[in-house]
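User: Second chain of the day. Same drill as before.
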Amino acid sequence: MANPLDTPDLHHQAETAASGLPPLLVAAERVASTVSQGVHGRRRVGQGETFWQFRRYEFGDSTQLIDWRQSAKSDPVYVREMEWEAAQSVWLWADGSPSMDYASDGGPLSKGWRAKVLAVALTSLLVRAGERIALMGTGMIPATGRNTLLRIATALERAETGATGSLPGPEFVPRHGRVVLFGDFLAPLGETRKAIARLSDHGVEGHLVQILDPAEETLPFDGRVEFEGPEGEGRIMIGRVESVRQAYREELAHHQAGLDAVARSFGWSLTRHMTHRPPETVLMTLYQLLSQVIRH
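Assistant: Same format as last time:
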């Protein structure tokens, strides 16, 4: 007897349904589904006592959270969010600068695409755990649920975050909130330190995910090659790339060590990922880091 799940009609229906989703969301959900099989649920603490903000009532919210006085002032129903709920929220940022468009022959996709896939896949995992997520640069209020996942995926795919710089700009994140920043972090270390300090000085905890193309790590080119900076740095012709390869690798190692030191100085974590490697590994590591913060 044929398995009804293998029928062409059902397969066609599934493909039709999936075709309406943003390609970024489809790719991210594949990664998240793989990782979700190896993670456990996240435990949440009890209600806090300090009011943070009102937000619209969402399906699944307890009616005990509804603020009837605030709701009586307008048509929408509002609930009160307490300070601990803000602290349990996660703000995501993905580098949208031109350098993230780079993909060498050894890299199957651009750094920017991988950053977006990881950001949406992490959102998917956090939504499944009931956490609230927001995308920096959009004015989005932290929320959970499938609609939040779709909003974040759509905003990233359409480049609606305003993240055109190599580092996040000034943005308010509540004290004890958490941010996850995805980028190549090849900007001068002083600039990176200032960007992190703006958040850390307000009691924000953070995680950096540095994404690089394999060619950026090894400089595998030979012979005469012209290099062009993607962010207006200009062009340079090198007659024999192999003659500068060792110096380049040493300079990159020096930058990486400095980036490690910057992250440690603020108590932030730093995870590295190369685009030719599976995204599931770094996603699992990142999710576990966030889970440790919740438990403590």
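The chain has two domains: 48-83, 88-295.

User: Great, on to the next one.
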